[in-house]
Amino acid sequence: MTLTLLAAAAPEGGGAPAFLTEVAALLIAAAIAAYTATRLRQVPIVGFLVAGVVIGPNAVGLVRSIETVNAAAELGVILLLFTIGIEFSLDRLVAIRRLIIGGGTLQVGLAIAVTAGICVAVGSSVPEAVFSGMLVALSSTAIVLKLLAGRSATDSRPGRVQVGLLIFQDLAIVAFVLLVPMLSGDGGSALDMVVALGRAAVVVAAVLVGARRVMPQLLERVARACSQEVFLLVVVAVCIGTAYISGLLIGSVTLGAFLAGLLVGESAFDLQALGEIIPLQTLFSAVFFISVGMLLDPGFLLANAALVLAVVAVVALIKVTTTAVAVAALREPVTVTAVAAFGLAQVGEFSFVLEGVGREAGLTPAGLGETGSQTFIAATVVLMLVTPALSALGRMLAARAIAGRDRSLAEDLVGGSDTRHGHVVIAGYGAAARALAELLDRNGIPFVVTTLSPDGASEAADAGYDVLRGDATRRATLEAAETPDARCVVIADDEPDAVARTAATARMVAPGVPVIARVWGDADPEALGVDELVTAENASALAVAVRVLRRFGLANTAIAAEVDRIKRSGWTGGAVTATLSAIDRASQLEFRPIDTQGCPHVDEITPVLPSAAGCEDCLRMGARWNHLRVCLSCGHVGCCDSSPNRHATAHHNETGHPLIASGEEGENWAWCYVDRARIDGQPTIDSPT
Is the pTM of this model over 0.70? Predict the structure, then answer.
């Protein structure tokens, strides 16, 4: 009802643009579909497909600009394959090469042969029969990977089998697109196919080189800019750029997107990239599944229900049987075979693309012309709709096959396995987090550190700690830290607003896991969403460590001994241990402007004595900075706006002092916050006072 009113209310002579009405219809439909499906205990994909059928041009007709929708949908597939590539590593890809080459070749070959045989038996020509086999051989990369990711089963044994077969199918598309015109006699040659496959090999080789030698260094530099906006833009540019080049050279943007993900996944910033890209991927993937639903013509389905359902049953039987034979040939257990076979029982989204190529070459599914095309589209959408149910059926059969056997085997086969359990998730790596990590490590308590700081991550890794480079306010980071299985989450060094964001994400990912926080400034635990709160002004950085150790049952005497040992070892309660820019606080800073340069505040400049050797507030917090700035009114040392905490600007906002000077060696400029003006000058450092 809401969507119909929205479309009817769109003005003809002005007001909201027409495209905005369709965008709003898409997003509202996606939100309603996801909520409804979730409430009905279905995966959101089912809701998206149904929503597409309802709002598409063949039903209510709220969305008619199919070209625009398809463009957004293709972007969704690109981003989905990109995220899967990030989660995969080159080592894992090499580990499943037997599945990709052996299993993929057998599965695709068997599916084509069986389908072609059936088509010939019912009167199709050989070219049309082989073409139909190509359509059936492909499974839905987008749906299968989305379902696997939703169950955290991508790295389970059946998950690896399915991913391996899907990768081969994506590679096979390149050959299929060239073979279809050859089947119809309209052009192409064996040489063209060899050239195309050679290009594919070159693209893959380039990615392998880039993943090891280029991407880690590039993302390291980008991450040090301390800007999430810059990092996101670079990651998206790598994704889209690689996909575009792959599309030009080998005709497969999706394979290029997967390879781009592998590029980023080989760096130390894979988790950070995943956290940034997931929201975009979720949005555009929803558009993709809605666009698939739009292809279905409900009128044709109702008029030809018997034919469509018969095709659905035959295709599902072919896919399950051929996939099962291929997987069994690789000597995988019957449990893995069942999960993989039913998981890949649908026809893929790229079959729509291939069907269009065939139509241009004069080939249609089973040689039935327009009826064949419409039947193929209807059967494919129906198979996509029932894919979650078929996947669940495969898992149920696998579970029955191993009933009564080793439970760990069942978890490995059906749902994957966890690597962390009963651990502490430490969000950030400031002074309190360092103290906590040291105490946990000495007492044999497992923990994982999450941080965006390249220096902090390196320092923690050098200490032998388990480290994830990612933003703890992102769901992907806390999921990678396996927070639902953690004993507690600790946010040890942060401002109240950042603590609230991290705590909210933790509640979403792991509702039952307690959150302990230490903040700067006054705050209410309930408002922040934390279970225990330590105020930094009223307690040392060790206080939060004491709270955590008590949760693990350590006696007060043992905790006191540990705290005393750390204090006696020279721990400063907040000193920054990494090499940072510093200021000689024993010397006065005298900034001499060349002229007033249009800023009346230069008359207020006086020699000042720097208040600290580094950013005063960062030293207190145990945080990092990029560049130092000195207040020319009082000497306060703060950090620049490219630093995470921007303490120089915060000092101006608090005091109203207008001018700062760069505290970096060799730089001779100042900045007026009031006049928004840069002032060039020649600073001099007097002798020690």
Answer: no
CA dihedral angle for residue 462, residue 463, residue 467, residue 472, rounded to 10 degrees: -110
Q: What is the C-alpha to C-alpha distance for residues 29 and 362, in angstroms, rounded to an integer?
A: 36
Q: Give, in degrees to the nearest 5, the angle at Cα 551 between 545 and 554.
A: 80
Are 520 and 655 in the same domain? no
HEC secondary structure over 61-98: CCCCCHHHHHHHHHHHHHHHHHHHHHHCCHHHHHHCHH
| C-alpha dist (Å) from residue 328 to 145, 320, 340, 402, 470 | 21, 12, 10, 17, 39
Domain span including residue 653:
589-685
The span from the CA of 638 to the CA of 614, in Å, is 7
CATH number at residue 616: 3.30.40.10
- Please report how many Cα atoms fall inside a 13 Å half-sphere around the Cα of residue 332, on the Cβ side: 29
**End-of-domain residue from the set 406, 433, 448:** 406
How far is residue 211 CA from its own chain's centroid?
18
How many structural domains does the chain have?
A: 3
Q: What is the DSSP string of 161-223?
A: HHHHHHHHHHHHHHHHHHHHHHHHTSS--HHHHHHHHHHHHHHHHHHHHHHHHTHHHHHHHHH
Residues in CB range of 453: below 8 A, 6 or more apart: 429, 624, 644
Burial call 670-688: b when 16+ CB within 10 Å, e when fewer: bbbbebebebebebeeeee
pLDDT reported for residue 352: 82
Same domain? 121 vs 172: yes
Residue 109 lies in a domain: yes
**Exposure b/e, 497-535, CB count within 10 A at least 16 = b:** ebbbbbbebbeebbeebbbbbbbbeebebeebbbbbbbe
Report yes or no on 152 lying in a domain: yes
In a domain, 26, yes or no: no
Same domain? 214 vs 185 = yes
**Helix/strand/coil for 688:** coil
Per-residue model confidence (pLDDT) at position 410: 53
- 336 touches 413 (CB < 8 A): yes
Angle at 264 between CA 260 and CA 269, to 5 degrees: 160
Q: Is residue 347 domain-shared with residue 215, that is, in the same domain?
A: yes
Residues 496-520 have pLDDT tens digits of: 888 888 999 999 989 889 999 887 6
Question: Across the beta sheet with 637-639, what order do the strands follow?
Answer: 637-639, 628-631, 659-662, 669-672, 677-680
Q: What is the CATH number of the domain that holds 366?
A: 1.20.1530.20
Q: What residues contact 671, with CB distance under 8 A and at least 6 apart?
A: 629, 659, 660, 661, 677, 678, 679
- What pLDDT does 275 receive? 81
- 362 and 286 in a common domain: yes
Spatial separation of the C-alpha atoms in residues 326 and 107, rounded to whole Å:
5
Give the residues of the chain that fall short of pLDDT 70.
1-16, 18, 186-190, 192-193, 196, 211-212, 225-226, 403-419, 520-522, 536-541, 566-587, 596-597, 620-623, 683-689
Q: How far apart are CA 294 and CA 527, in angstroms?
A: 44
484: CATH: 3.40.50.720
Whether residue 414 is contained in a domain is answered as: no
Question: Is the domain of 185 the same as that of 119?
Answer: yes
Q: Among all chains, which residue has been given the structure tokens 């020699």?
A: 607
Identify whether residues 222 and 371 lie together within a single domain: yes
Q: Are residues 451 and 481 in the same domain?
A: yes
Q: What is the pLDDT of residue 520?
A: 65
* Beta strand 684-685 pairing with 628-631: unpaired
